[in-house]
Each structure stands twice: as structure tokens, then as C-alpha cells.
Amino acid sequence: MSTTFPRLLATHAAQRPDASAMREKEYGIWQSTNWSAMLDMVTNLACGLSKAGLQRGEHIVVIGANRPRLYATMLAAQSLGAIPIPLYQDAVASEYIFPMSNAEVRFCVVENQEQVDKMLEVRDQCPHLSHIYYDDPKGLRKYFQPGLISMEELMSAGHAFAIQSPDFYQQQVEQGQADDVAAMFFTSGTTGNPKGVVHTYHSLINRAEAGAKFDHLTHNEEVLAYMPPAWIGQNIFSYAQWLVCGYVVNCPESVSTVMIDLNEIGPTYYFAPPRVFEGLLTSVMIRMEDAGSLKRGLFHYFMDIARQYGHARMDGQSVGLLTSFLLALGNLLIYGPLRNTLGFSRVRVAYTAGEAIGPDLFRFYRSIGINLKQLYGSTETAVFVCLQPDNQARADTVGIPCEGVEIKMTENGEILVKSSGLLKEYYKNPSATAEVLTADGWYRTSDAGFIDAQGHLKIIDRIKDVGRIKGGINDGAMFAPKYIENKLKFFPYIKEAVAYGDQREKVCVMINIDFEAVGNWAERRNLSYAGYTDLAQKPEIYGLIKDCIEKVNADLAQDDLLAGSQVNRFLVLHKELDADDGELTRTNKVRRSFIAEKYKPLVNALYEGLHEQFIETLVKFEDGRTGSVSATLNISDAKTFVHMVKVA
Question: What is the pLDDT of residues 275-295, one digit of tens each?
């Protein structure tokens, strides 16, 4: 059915006015907002924004964490026919200049003082910006800049306007159509300026409905919204599907309280990128290493059983009476308490997306009874392209095309998608739009992959990143850097990896260690260190990382396509890769070409056979100051394995 988000809000408010729509944790206490109160809030905000001059078709920027008032702001803007643009709250001020100038933004609604300061910093470079509204007044009492107003004042003015013109809000909502532009999301910009992805109500709601239907979602679901709303994944799960299904979205108090809040809420529907699941598992393994010998022994015994049979049980397969008994006992002693510790005791459906997840990591969660699945999609496809059925969840695929999706491959293996969830265009960028949308309505994903015999889609890598080894014994072998990086990142000691090898005779990688996991490993072995840089260059740490790399090499040696992409040499970086330093996108994707240029001396040293290399790197601190980090990095060789050709 053709509709808009404000109309969906009105439906929930009419049908279930007293049911909780959102909860927000403040000062340790969960505060609930029901659907009726949410509609009132949206009405007052819409009337206030209209009175301030927000026009139909105009853009409004929203910056902050998941907060009811910020979600209400997006709904208020859409009620007036305006277009919300959520931006990443952890971006540095300069990163806002292009999207705000590009969209000619006059109105901006932010969460707190930090975001206000950023807006005031870029104001001279964003000539249209005239209205800045803030949710949290803490620290802003003595700010008197023109156009800076609290959301409380905005809503008060809107409330007064709504009393004078009681039919105004409803008249505005009724003007909205399904084909109107609903929102714009800026891509992460791995190779240049970000692009504004324009979505209509129809594209977003159609995909939200398809995902809800696939997993039988209802208004009874509980969701924890803690990833940035600017990320399309979080926005679909906690905004589009929230309004389609009418379930409860819970907003944690802060980043530091997410684990506590996860346990308190007990979500039934959960979504996170692989790095979150990696972090959760790392914290569990660290705690188990510190546990007593009996508890540690029980954990490993029952986890071995879970690894062998838990995945099959989740897929509905028979595992025999004795194994069923052991799994039940393990659930009582280990799996159940572990799910509860992680906050997943009530999870019915959990998804991961954004990057490939390591097979062992994937198997771990499913083996302890968590219905973790993968999906495939992007900002341009409104997320839902492929989903995994409950009994067909596999680590090496991203599922089957969901309702309303067609997939085909080009001759070079690029995946093309056609669905109702495709972007309308890239804003003010017709050439980029023409590059990704074909004349007959197919979207070029830039991903390489294929459909397997079971109808599941397998992703190899980005088309532009898939290369070939040139020279040496592996001349002509396929090189898929992301595939290799993801295999390395399964290990809890490796936080990030950057692989190089295209048009070179061997593969080399630069590694970021996981400071918490490796630090814990070092402390248990009485290995002292004075911070990240010192720890990263310890010979013992190189031995630890080398062992991880050689395990990946042994696995790659069994792969007919990628056996020639085994890692020959590696180094451990002296600093963590950081989005503020331009090395990662705001969605934590590696900017491989940028890193190659920034760390050119290290890349050269890897390929020239050197065993150490000095490097000095400029870094940006959280308070905006800059500094430098320098070190002489060790470079090590890794053992590779002979590929055994399979004989039919």
C-alpha cells in the first residue's frame, strides 16, 4: 500500500495510542514515549519548523545519537514535505561542509553542545545555514549566537501555532505522496566526496515491509538502537521498520552503557556489523581466560560440543538423543548464561551486515542458540537485497534474493540488482547516477559474486578491488583483498587488516592489533608494555600475529581460486587506523588507496624485502589538536602452503 512515514505514525497513534513507541535511558532510568505522545511531539516540531520557514522540498540536517526527539524531528520534517539528512555525529566539523553546502541546508537539528560547536565552526563555510536547534541544553547556557535555539523553544512555538491552526499539520501530511523524496543519506566517500543517495517513501517502506514479512516481525519486537542513525542499516531497522511494524525502539544512555542497556532491554530483533559481534566475543574470551580452571574446562568442553552440533540443531537437523541431552545440559550450564551475559537471551532474529563475517565467529553465535544471519544490501538499495532463511544461514553466503528483488551477473562477475528499493538518484550528480543505474532499471553494485547451486548469493569482493598477482610462482592468481582481510579479522587479536597484492608478485598486509585482547594476552604472560605502539612491536606479538596469518594461509591453500593469495609478509602498525585521520570511513571501512599513499614507505619496505622501517605519522586527537606518532616497525615473513589440486 502506498503511504508515507507520517501517515504510518498517525495509524499507530490511532490504533495503539498508549503503547510504547520509543524508550530513552536518562540518568539510569528508562523513559517511555507512547505513540500518542510521539504524534504530539512531531506535530509541535512540524508546526515550529514551518513557522520558522522550513519549506516543502527543502533539506534539513539531523546530527546526533539515537534520541526520540531527533527521530521526531525527521518525522516532523517529512510531515512538511521537507527532506531529512542524518549525518554522523562522530564526524569532524570539516566533514559536514560538503554535504551541507551540496544540499543548501538552512536548518540543522543537533543533539548537544559538541554538535553545536561543530555547526558554529563551519557556519562561515556553509552560507545557507541560519537555524541551529539543539536537544540537550547542557553547557549551552551562555551561547547567544544568532539562530541558535533549543528544541524546547521550537516545540513551544509550534504548540502555540498548532492551537491557532489545528488543521495545519494534518493538511500538510495529506499532501505527501509515496513517490515523494523521503530522505537523503550520504555515502561514506571512500574515493572522494560523499554522494547524496536520494530515497523515496516507496523505496524505503517497500524494503522495510519486505524484511518484516521475511522474518515475521510484529509490533511486539524490542530493538536497541545504538549505531549512528546516519548509517542506512540503523536507519532502516530503527526508523523505517519501526514505523512499518510499530515495535519499540530503545535508545541507550551512551556508548559506554550499551552492554548494560542490552542486558536490561533484552532485544528480540538485533542488528550489528561484524565488528560488534567480534568485540562481544573478544570480551567473552578474555573473561574466560581469567576464570577458574573448572569453569574454563566446562566452557571449552561444552563449546566443543556446540561447535560440532549446535549449528546443525539451529538448522533443524536431527543430532541424536545423546547429543541432544548434552546440548540441553550445555544450554543450562553454559549457552543460556552466556546468551544472558551478552544480552541475547530473548533475541529471535539477529542480523549482521556491512562486511563479511568470519565463519568461525558466525558458527560460534549460532552454535549457542542465537539465530544470527547475514543480509546483503547497501545505501543505494535501501538495505534489503538478500536475506538468509532461518534454516539456511551460512557464513559463506549472504542469503537468497528477498521478495521483489531480481539479481543477475555481468560477464566480469559484477552483481546487478533490480528492486523497488533502489535509489532515485545521486543528488546533483547525474553522471554518478548514470554510472550505477542502467537504462532498463538495474543497479550496478560494484560487488563481484555469483549465485551458488542452492540459490544463495556469494560475495567475493568489490569489483575494483579484485585483482591479479603478477609475476612469481602465483602469476595470474586471483587477489581479493577484502576476503583476505575478513579472514584475518576473525582472530580476536586482529582488529583491522589492509592487504596489498594486485599487480605484484606476492601479498603483504598491514595489521592493527586489538589493544584490549592483545593487552590481556600479554598481561597473562607477564609481558610489560607502555602503550599501543610499544605493545605492537614486541617480538612476542609478532609471533602471535604470525601464527594467525599462517592459519589463514593454510585455509587459503585449500581454495582453488585464492590459493595464490596467501600472505607472504606483514607488519603491525604503530597506531590504530582512525576515521578522524582519514584511514577509515565513518562506517569503519578501510580506505585502502588512501592508506597505501599515506604509508607508502611501509608498503615499499614490505615489497623491497626490508626487515624494519621508520615511520612518522600525523594524527588528530579528539579535541581537534594534531600531533605525531613515530616508530621503527618490524617486518616479518609468513609461511605459505602448497595448494593441493583436487582430483575428481
Answer: 888 888 888 878 887 788 888
